[in-house]
């Protein structure tokens, strides 16, 4: 599909964690932004954003999407068949409204790997959305942003993937030298905005980005330097971490997926290790990598942690 420069961009789930960072980056890149939320949402979006609410019916979406060049989905769910599964409706409505490009809710591990849902069940919905988009790419372009572990999102959840920054404790898995890709929320937003600016390059592609490639030991060293304190360290095993989540998941506890996600970040399935195998898009997009220690210094200061 031929493309023309993107001007009007709509963000689905604009008040969410990725949604907020995306809106911020789009405004900074000079796009005109519409933020979509559910009817029930009580949030206030930034003054420069046109706020529209929907019941998520296809008819409502088709009307709302009209006039937009790009639609970005940032909806989220850890339960298969829930919010991520309704993205097919978004795609149909976007095609009917003449939207040029749809960015599905990815922003995580590498879903170009067909076995990804074996490690994190809700990824089945993400793969299905991408398969659907690929089958329609003569009518609408797509961009899959692959950003690995959401770094600050994870640090904000005490205990996630072994870290509790405030308590100065960490569980180090498999010796702590497993390399993986980590991306901060604002960097995800910038990756989306910059991909839209370089649409000819990014359309119908998996776009691999990060803030930094890290290991747990590198993070621990940096955290100890910026806090000036020693962390209490325990040891863990990636396979056991993932198996524990899988067992909970199979018992019907959806939150088991959190341990499966952490296990995947630390190497299970090889889904968050792509900078060497796939090559990063940061330079092509004009998206600077970040400095781990500088980032953590600011993070710790802002959180007063
Ligand atoms: N790799 C990682 O470590 C990592 C970490 C976090 C997230 N992610 C990914 O990033 C994406 C966005 O996640 P997030 O954490 O930013 O999400 P979030 O803040 O939890 O939610 C985003 C938005 O989704 C909308 N939403 C939630 N349930 C919905 C439903 N049933 N129907 C319609 N809309 C619904 C809500 O919008 P309104 O209430 O405003 O309508 C919400 O603001 C997801 O694909 C997620 O898997 C990856």
From TrEMBL:
GO MF assignments: oxidoreductase activity
Keyword Oxidoreductase: yes
Domain of life, per lineage: Eukaryota
A Pfam family this chain is assigned to: NmrA
Phylogenetic lineage: Eukaryota, Fungi, Dikarya, Ascomycota, Pezizomycotina
Gene3D superfamilies linked: NAD(P)-binding Rossmann-like Domain (3.40.50.720)
Occurrences of domain NmrA-like (ranges): 7-295
Keywords per UniProt: NADP, Oxidoreductase
InterPro entries: NAD(P)-bd_dom_sf, NmrA-like, NmrA/Isoflavone_reductase-like, PCBER-like
Protein's name in the database: NmrA-like domain-containing protein
CDD domains named among the record's database cross-references: PCBER_SDR_a
Keyword S-adenosyl-L-methionine in record: no
